[in-house]
Design a protein that fits this description.
Number of strands: 0
Order of helices and strands: HHHHHHHHHHH
Oligomer: single chain
Distance between the termini: 19 Å
Number of helices: 11
Helix content: 55-70%
Bound molecules: fe (iii) ion
Length: 191
Protein backbone atom coordinates (compact mmCIF):
# COMPACT_ATOMS: atom_id res chain seq x y z
CA UNK A 1 0.00 0.00 0.00
CA UNK A 2 1.58 3.28 -1.10
CA UNK A 3 1.93 6.07 1.41
CA UNK A 4 -1.26 8.10 1.63
CA UNK A 5 -2.92 5.89 -0.97
CA UNK A 6 -6.70 6.11 -1.17
CA UNK A 7 -7.01 2.35 -0.63
CA UNK A 8 -6.03 2.86 2.97
CA UNK A 9 -9.52 4.22 3.58
CA UNK A 10 -10.99 0.97 2.33
CA UNK A 11 -8.60 -1.00 4.54
CA UNK A 12 -9.79 1.01 7.55
CA UNK A 13 -13.46 0.56 6.66
CA UNK A 14 -12.92 -3.17 6.08
CA UNK A 15 -11.21 -3.51 9.47
CA UNK A 16 -14.18 -1.99 11.28
CA UNK A 17 -16.48 -4.11 9.13
CA UNK A 18 -14.66 -7.32 9.99
CA UNK A 19 -13.81 -6.67 13.63
CA UNK A 20 -15.82 -3.66 14.80
CA UNK A 21 -18.50 -5.86 16.32
CA UNK A 22 -16.10 -7.30 18.88
CA UNK A 23 -16.64 -6.19 22.45
CA UNK A 24 -14.75 -3.23 23.86
CA UNK A 25 -12.84 -4.89 26.71
CA UNK A 26 -15.31 -5.33 29.53
CA UNK A 27 -17.43 -2.32 28.47
CA UNK A 28 -21.06 -2.41 27.25
CA UNK A 29 -20.23 -1.20 23.70
CA UNK A 30 -18.55 -2.75 20.63
CA UNK A 31 -15.22 -1.54 19.23
CA UNK A 32 -17.04 0.26 16.40
CA UNK A 33 -19.60 1.91 18.72
CA UNK A 34 -16.78 3.06 20.97
CA UNK A 35 -14.71 4.47 18.08
CA UNK A 36 -17.74 6.31 16.65
CA UNK A 37 -18.62 7.79 20.04
CA UNK A 38 -15.06 9.09 20.54
CA UNK A 39 -15.01 10.60 17.03
CA UNK A 40 -18.40 12.20 17.65
CA UNK A 41 -17.26 13.77 20.95
CA UNK A 42 -14.16 15.11 19.17
CA UNK A 43 -16.33 16.54 16.40
CA UNK A 44 -18.78 18.10 18.86
CA UNK A 45 -15.83 19.81 20.55
CA UNK A 46 -14.92 21.47 17.23
CA UNK A 47 -11.65 19.54 16.85
CA UNK A 48 -9.57 19.64 13.66
CA UNK A 49 -9.80 16.69 11.20
CA UNK A 50 -6.61 15.21 12.62
CA UNK A 51 -7.99 14.89 16.15
CA UNK A 52 -11.40 13.62 15.02
CA UNK A 53 -9.60 10.95 12.99
CA UNK A 54 -7.33 10.20 15.97
CA UNK A 55 -10.51 9.64 17.98
CA UNK A 56 -11.92 7.31 15.39
CA UNK A 57 -8.70 5.31 15.10
CA UNK A 58 -7.32 5.51 18.66
CA UNK A 59 -7.93 1.80 19.30
CA UNK A 60 -7.10 0.54 15.81
CA UNK A 61 -4.25 -1.38 17.44
CA UNK A 62 -6.85 -3.71 18.94
CA UNK A 63 -8.33 -4.34 15.49
CA UNK A 64 -5.04 -4.95 13.70
CA UNK A 65 -3.80 -7.21 16.48
CA UNK A 66 -7.08 -8.95 17.16
CA UNK A 67 -6.30 -9.94 20.72
CA UNK A 68 -9.40 -11.02 22.57
CA UNK A 69 -11.52 -9.38 25.20
CA UNK A 70 -9.99 -11.33 28.08
CA UNK A 71 -6.56 -9.80 27.56
CA UNK A 72 -6.67 -7.63 30.69
CA UNK A 73 -8.11 -10.51 32.71
CA UNK A 74 -5.13 -12.62 31.78
CA UNK A 75 -2.80 -9.93 33.12
CA UNK A 76 -1.36 -8.96 29.74
CA UNK A 77 -0.79 -5.44 28.53
CA UNK A 78 -1.11 -5.64 24.76
CA UNK A 79 0.33 -2.11 24.22
CA UNK A 80 -2.40 -1.41 21.68
CA UNK A 81 -1.41 2.26 21.49
CA UNK A 82 1.99 1.32 20.04
CA UNK A 83 0.51 -1.28 17.70
CA UNK A 84 -1.96 1.32 16.42
CA UNK A 85 0.65 4.06 16.08
CA UNK A 86 3.07 1.90 14.10
CA UNK A 87 0.26 0.79 11.81
CA UNK A 88 -0.78 4.42 11.18
CA UNK A 89 2.57 6.22 11.08
CA UNK A 90 3.43 5.51 7.40
CA UNK A 91 0.16 7.17 6.36
CA UNK A 92 -0.92 9.86 8.83
CA UNK A 93 0.73 13.01 10.25
CA UNK A 94 1.94 13.28 13.85
CA UNK A 95 -1.27 15.18 14.72
CA UNK A 96 -3.14 11.89 14.25
CA UNK A 97 -0.49 9.40 15.39
CA UNK A 98 0.97 11.03 18.52
CA UNK A 99 -2.28 11.58 20.47
CA UNK A 100 -3.11 7.91 19.78
CA UNK A 101 0.31 6.81 20.97
CA UNK A 102 -0.05 8.92 24.12
CA UNK A 103 -3.68 8.15 25.02
CA UNK A 104 -2.78 5.39 27.46
CA UNK A 105 -0.06 7.33 29.27
CA UNK A 106 -2.53 10.25 29.36
CA UNK A 107 -4.60 8.10 31.71
CA UNK A 108 -1.55 7.55 33.93
CA UNK A 109 -0.98 11.33 33.79
CA UNK A 110 -4.55 12.26 34.74
CA UNK A 111 -4.47 9.79 37.63
CA UNK A 112 -1.39 11.64 38.92
CA UNK A 113 -2.72 15.20 38.59
CA UNK A 114 -6.46 14.67 39.24
CA UNK A 115 -7.26 12.35 42.16
CA UNK A 116 -10.98 12.43 41.24
CA UNK A 117 -10.12 11.13 37.76
CA UNK A 118 -8.98 7.75 39.03
CA UNK A 119 -12.10 7.30 41.17
CA UNK A 120 -14.33 7.94 38.15
CA UNK A 121 -12.66 5.30 35.92
CA UNK A 122 -14.64 2.20 35.00
CA UNK A 123 -13.64 -1.09 36.65
CA UNK A 124 -12.08 -2.35 33.40
CA UNK A 125 -10.13 0.87 32.97
CA UNK A 126 -8.84 0.71 36.54
CA UNK A 127 -7.75 -2.85 36.01
CA UNK A 128 -5.81 -1.99 32.84
CA UNK A 129 -4.22 1.02 34.59
CA UNK A 130 -2.34 -1.37 36.87
CA UNK A 131 -0.95 -3.23 33.86
CA UNK A 132 -0.01 0.10 32.27
CA UNK A 133 2.15 1.12 35.23
CA UNK A 134 -0.29 2.99 37.53
CA UNK A 135 -0.31 6.77 38.10
CA UNK A 136 2.70 8.75 36.83
CA UNK A 137 5.36 10.02 39.20
CA UNK A 138 5.78 13.83 39.29
CA UNK A 139 8.90 13.52 37.09
CA UNK A 140 6.99 11.43 34.53
CA UNK A 141 4.12 13.94 34.59
CA UNK A 142 6.53 16.83 33.93
CA UNK A 143 8.05 14.93 30.99
CA UNK A 144 4.58 14.23 29.61
CA UNK A 145 3.64 17.93 29.82
CA UNK A 146 6.71 18.79 27.74
CA UNK A 147 5.34 16.78 24.79
CA UNK A 148 3.75 19.08 22.18
CA UNK A 149 0.88 16.60 21.77
CA UNK A 150 0.09 16.09 25.45
CA UNK A 151 -3.00 18.32 25.43
CA UNK A 152 -4.48 16.55 22.41
CA UNK A 153 -3.75 13.22 24.10
CA UNK A 154 -5.53 14.31 27.30
CA UNK A 155 -8.55 15.46 25.29
CA UNK A 156 -8.63 12.15 23.44
CA UNK A 157 -8.33 10.31 26.76
CA UNK A 158 -11.36 12.08 28.27
CA UNK A 159 -13.51 11.27 25.22
CA UNK A 160 -12.23 7.69 25.36
CA UNK A 161 -13.47 7.43 28.96
CA UNK A 162 -16.91 8.82 28.08
CA UNK A 163 -17.47 6.80 24.92
CA UNK A 164 -19.02 3.75 26.54
CA UNK A 165 -22.74 4.52 26.30
CA UNK A 166 -24.80 1.53 25.15
CA UNK A 167 -27.14 2.27 22.22
CA UNK A 168 -26.14 5.92 21.79
CA UNK A 169 -27.17 7.28 18.35
CA UNK A 170 -24.13 8.80 16.62
CA UNK A 171 -23.13 9.35 12.96
CA UNK A 172 -21.91 6.21 11.11
CA UNK A 173 -18.38 5.46 9.93
CA UNK A 174 -19.12 6.82 6.43
CA UNK A 175 -19.66 10.27 8.00
CA UNK A 176 -15.90 10.48 8.63
CA UNK A 177 -14.64 9.55 5.15
CA UNK A 178 -13.93 13.16 4.16
CA UNK A 179 -12.11 13.85 7.42
CA UNK A 180 -9.92 10.76 6.95
CA UNK A 181 -9.06 11.91 3.40
CA UNK A 182 -8.21 15.37 4.75
CA UNK A 183 -6.07 13.94 7.54
CA UNK A 184 -4.21 11.71 5.07
CA UNK A 185 -3.54 14.72 2.85
CA UNK A 186 -2.16 16.59 5.86
CA UNK A 187 0.79 14.25 6.09
CA UNK A 188 3.96 16.36 6.03
CA UNK A 189 6.21 15.71 3.02
CA UNK A 190 9.52 14.09 3.76
CA UNK A 191 12.68 13.66 1.70
FE1 LIG B 1 -10.61 3.46 23.69
Amino acid sequence: MARGSPELIDVIFDLFDAKGDSAYFGEPVSQLEHALQVAHLAEQAGSPDSLVVAGLLHDVGHLVHGEDEEVADRGLDARHEDAGASWLVPHFPAEVVRPIQLHVVAKRYLCAVEPSYHDALSAASRQSLKLQGGAMTPAEAARFEADPFHEAAVRLRRWDDQAKVPGLAVPPLAHYRGRIVAALAGRPQRG
